Amino acid sequence: MASIGIGVIGAGVMGAEHARILATEVSGGHLVAVADADLPRAQAAANGAKAMTNAEGLIADPAVEAVLVASPDSTHHRLVLAAIAAGKPVLCEKPLATSSAECMEIVQAEIRSGRQLVQTGFMRRFDPAYREMKAVIEGKALGGVHILHCQHRNAAAPPWFTGAMAVTNSLVHELDISRWLLSTEYTAVTAFPYPSEEGKTADPALFVLETKAGTLVSVEIFMNAAYGYHVQAEAVCAKGTIGLAHPALTRIRHQRAECGSFPSNWIPRFLDAYRIQNQAWIDGIHSGTPPVEGATAWDGLVATCLADQIVEALTGRQRVEFKLPPKPLPSEAV
Amino acid sequence: MASIGIGVIGAGVMGAEHARILATEVSGGHLVAVADADLPRAQAAANGAKAMTNAEGLIADPAVEAVLVASPDSTHHRLVLAAIAAGKPVLCEKPLATSSAECMEIVQAEIRSGRQLVQTGFMRRFDPAYREMKAVIEGKALGGVHILHCQHRNAAAPPWFTGAMAVTNSLVHELDISRWLLSTEYTAVTAFPYPSEEGKTADPALFVLETKAGTLVSVEIFMNAAYGYHVQAEAVCAKGTIGLAHPALTRIRHQRAECGSFPSNWIPRFLDAYRIQNQAWIDGIHSGTPPVEGATAWDGLVATCLADQIVEALTGRQRVEFKLPPKPLPSEAV
Amino acid sequence: MASIGIGVIGAGVMGAEHARILATEVSGGHLVAVADADLPRAQAAANGAKAMTNAEGLIADPAVEAVLVASPDSTHHRLVLAAIAAGKPVLCEKPLATSSAECMEIVQAEIRSGRQLVQTGFMRRFDPAYREMKAVIEGKALGGVHILHCQHRNAAAPPWFTGAMAVTNSLVHELDISRWLLSTEYTAVTAFPYPSEEGKTADPALFVLETKAGTLVSVEIFMNAAYGYHVQAEAVCAKGTIGLAHPALTRIRHQRAECGSFPSNWIPRFLDAYRIQNQAWIDGIHSGTPPVEGATAWDGLVATCLADQIVEALTGRQRVEFKLPPKPLPSEAV
Amino acid sequence: MASIGIGVIGAGVMGAEHARILATEVSGGHLVAVADADLPRAQAAANGAKAMTNAEGLIADPAVEAVLVASPDSTHHRLVLAAIAAGKPVLCEKPLATSSAECMEIVQAEIRSGRQLVQTGFMRRFDPAYREMKAVIEGKALGGVHILHCQHRNAAAPPWFTGAMAVTNSLVHELDISRWLLSTEYTAVTAFPYPSEEGKTADPALFVLETKAGTLVSVEIFMNAAYGYHVQAEAVCAKGTIGLAHPALTRIRHQRAECGSFPSNWIPRFLDAYRIQNQAWIDGIHSGTPPVEGATAWDGLVATCLADQIVEALTGRQRVEFKLPPKPLPSEAV
């Protein structure tokens, strides 16, 4: 089976990382082009593959058989639609689009195309630790999940990274992974922001999500947790709990302490998840069956749609019951 | 300095444990009598000291210089008032009394007595791990506490242990220890019970408490957590976090796993806390200065008063802003 | 039962700590006197009890019903014999005496006295973690112990703390606790010192001990481990392992790491062990039956006798088969 | 750059795993053929690629540009020489050959070929945890390594897996990884087998290795450790220690314990190491520069040569000073 030529759009931190993975760590696919408005940046990420400034040109390039979108959020909608129009599989970094309506256009366009072309880049679903957690939950040995505690901590965020951005950029990962872990849908949210100091945004914030299954999901988002990048999850089940282990590879004892390290950002923590996600995406293109773990366009819509309503809950300080548009069936594409 | 003669009222699980501690593990005090309606049970706990059925008789006994109340909750109010009336120091197991009004009678009676005679048995304040946590928080190296996550898990509870009882018996410990750790007062609570199944009480439940200092306190209470007795606390501060370590003394590797154990109930977990609390109480009687860590009658009132309002929040499913009676000054005793 | 009056000889770090424990943390006994060549030091440790410079005077004092020896090692032999001569129970800090011959004099004197008056202060036998380890080993669920790995690390030692001193002061604790954990006797030792640099003593050193039961005991002694005081033990059994857990009470996350602390010396690590040892000693005096966990005079002899031969093994760089004098029976006292 | 066609010889557990990795997880190379005496087994591992019974035929096949040898140990020597003769890069599972003399033939043949064609499959050098450990050691922040403690535990081994086999199959991994971690050479070994019971082989065994750098290496090999597959390493340095963390991805709390799991054999533990090793091997073929971390033919010789002498030490129960043949320089090939 021939190796699939892949084009990456966006050569920022994530785009460059995806280009590196596709060029050096996956089987059955390879990097053929990188597009970025900043040509030298595209060239650096391409590392010998084609570099260009025109994203549409990359999508149209015959050597590009599949597209990975890692450009600024506001461009996702347009580029994913262009890939669908070109009939090319597309893996789009989250968010799928910045509004529910735009996500719905993508969902509809994909249905009309007659093929499942879109994968939303919720890479945690491919993280070995989260997968082990899901396998144990689904194995039922611990009984049903009553509470899922999640903590999402970034070392530091810029001052303009407001409460709303914490929801649409960070909480959105927790929304997707918890929904995937629990195989249920959210029904309501209550938000508790830590009171903001003069001139500062409220950070951290607590969210309590209710679900159809009854499971309560408690989420802490802390964009300036200072000590490092750290993601935790613990499922409290009827007969026991399962949680992510501290992912440090080594333990150091020095200066009166035994320590395990944290990375300063998400990339080292999810290095494997990105690689495995991209490999599964390529394997799915070869087999014609997208990976079952992958987030679909609909999953991308749900995340964006709920995040918008959670921003309201955060601002309005009241419990919000979620509303979702109906999920279109293949026959209902408009 | 002569050893203080102590009488224990109640010879159930806690009373017998207190009698054992006072007879065999403390300096400067010793067990002289145990009272329990069930005389053989009193005799077993007394282990050679006086045993009797009459609690008031024990309080009046000249050999009893200080009283430890560990009888059923409903008797606390009457017995603590009797000890105050007799001018004898009294350490009362939580709750101090079962209603706010009764607690206030104790607070007032103590003020009128002109001495600080009452200590409420919130023993966690003497647990070395909680004390280390408080010392680090107060040392300020980690900055202010933004969120305090608490989990209180019992292995199993009888079916009649209702949502309200989980609040008044278990959550009450979390209320007191978090307030003590943070040196602040609660302002409001929102409750999220896990939906109850047919014929079962909602368990677990999540509570989000707001405080004057701004710190959010998230508390999980799970009375039937099955895997063991387990208490956790993690303070999320501006520059880092501090939490209780898993208290297992050993690690066993067998059957494909490395494991640290949990006890089946609270006594092994807080063995040291009870001993240290009782020693500090005795030391305070000798010195005339009750231990600063000890919970006062007012602390007992706060716990009972808030627990009652949290039961309402749990039932009514809405955010409740706390109301507390004014704290009487010494000059205001009625 | 009346409280036992106890005299402490030696007011250095350990003596002062013992005086504090006896004055404030034990039941059934109390501090009545402290003797130290340095009177102000004795007074500071006595904290209101009698202070004196004459150790023999303390032993002779009628208020002193039992003696705790924590004076310099070279004085132990003389003072323990004096306590035996006075018919008073004596708890002697390790080593019981600095030579096998002196230890044997004590063993013989005790036999002649007709009572078990001597307890050697190997306090680790009372440490809750070591006791849990012994209980699991003896419970047999893990099968027989094939290897016992031990590490003894001090943060720092003075330069004159030579290889021989590391054996007689530190390794001696490992010798005793491993022999107690395993209920067997050593047969041989091989020593592997880390090569010394110019002008420095070899440190750390590895020792492999063979036992009658077949269990191999591997011991690392590191007097200048820098990072803190740390004692580890892991029993590798037929069906699994059991080891001491890291004893930190809390976990701190800061500066890119999750950390549990180590103390700078042995006192915080073994605080409970000293208290429980001293309580058990007092309880044994009351009951007339010394604690079964306590190290006897013979155990003190074994430790000293083996340590001397291990020093030879360390110097001579060859495997040494141990020789022990025969253990005198009560009828054989000379 | 065209993808490299790779042939795998041997379709047992390791060969099949290598075939899977090369077919599905690496970039720049792909599986073209599998050879095994058992054709159906070869076909199963080939999964669509060519399957054959003739290993020499595979080496000669023009589609095979590089060879991975995972056949029985006794065939390694012959097959590696054949690959060298064909001028094809070869990654050979350990041991490189079963005698020092055979290893030397390979070393010499490679020198004569004028190219570095051989990599010995000591995959631990590519394990992220061991690499982090080496980076910290070489970063010098902890100072020089004084002792390296290693434990190698298999869940179970067949009865015919004798003491000598434990050395040549398992200890050999420890020999290589410790030498690589420390960048030094061994000078001597002393062996301490656990006494064998009637009809059973001594297992576990302790080995103390001495090195040119002075570092002592203590190794436990336990082929029937029962509880799982577990590899540990801790470097005790002048200012602190660094060790491998427990590699469990999740923590489960159930049945009175918090547990992290162990795999039942080495494959899950070193899944990443095998993948990264194979990727680095392929990358090295493309670049013309074999990976610096990779074990060379000489490293393979050292491991085999020392293992043989350690078997003698184990049997003879005495300290053995190692002898190695001189390392041939390129100009000295015979």
Q: What do you see in this structure?
A:
- The structure is a homotetramer of 334-residue chains.
- In chain A, strand 13 and strand 14 (257-261) form a beta hairpin.
- The mean pLDDT of chain A is 95.
- Chain A is of the alpha/beta class.
- In chain A, the strands form 3 sheets. A 7-stranded mixed sheet of chain A has the order 12-11-7-10-9-8-15, with helices on one face.
- In chain A, helix 4 packs parallel to helix 5 (100-113), helix 5 packs antiparallel against helix 10 and helix 6 (128-139) packs across helix 7.
- Chain A is built from 10 helices and 15 strands.
- Chain A has 2 domains: 4-124 and 272-332, 3-Layer(aba) Sandwich (Rossmann fold), CATH 3.40.50; 128-269, Dihydrodipicolinate Reductase, domain 2.
- The interface between A and D is large, with 36 and 36 residues.
- Strand 12 (240-244) of chain B pairs antiparallel with strand 13 (250-254) of chain C.
Structural class of chain A: alpha/beta
Query: Which architecture of the largest domain in chain A would the CATH scheme give at its second level?
Result: 3-Layer(aba) Sandwich
Rounded mean pLDDT score of chain A = 95
Individual helix count of chain A:
10
Most extensive contact: A-D, 36 and 36 residues
Report the count of strand segments of chain A: 15
Determine and state the CATH class of the largest domain in chain A: Alpha Beta
Tell me the CATH topology of the largest domain in chain A.
Rossmann fold
